[in-house]
Amino acid sequence: MVRALMIEGCIIGLFVITNGIYVVVFPPVNDEPQGYAIIAIGIFIILVTLHLNRTMGKDSECLPLQ
Predict the structure, then answer these.
(1) Which of 18, 14, 4, 9 lies closest to 50 in space, CA to CA?
(2) pLDDT per position as a tens digit, 2-59
(3) For the chain, what percent of residues have pLDDT higher than 90?
(4) How many independent structural domains does the chain possess?
């Protein structure tokens, strides 16, 4: 489950970054600040996903075998 969360979070983050690049590059003009904010949100999603993956992975290592 942890690996699935990481893959889904990274895919969603990459889609958001791609959307931000689209907003920056294509018209109408003067939408660049929104595009850069969308790109930052995509990077933030990826970083949060990787952090959650790391913390959940450490928790699963400490669990006793059943």
Answers:
(1) 9
(2) 778 888 989 999 999 999 999 998 878 888 889 999 999 999 999 999 988 888 877 6
(3) 42
(4) 1
> Is residue 63 in some structural domain?
no
Q: Is 2:58 a contact under the CB 8 Å cutoff?
A: no
Q: Is residue 39 part of a domain?
A: yes
| Alpha-carbon distances of 2 from 14, 24, 44, 60, 65, rounded to whole Å | 18, 33, 18, 10, 18
Residue 62 lies in a domain: no
Under DSSP, is residue 1 helix (H, G, I), strand (E, B) or coil?
coil
45: in domain: yes
Q: What residues contact residue 52 under an 8 Å CB cut-off, 6+ apart?
A: 5, 9
Q: What domain range includes position 32?
A: 2-56
* Predicted TM-score of the model (pTM): 0.77
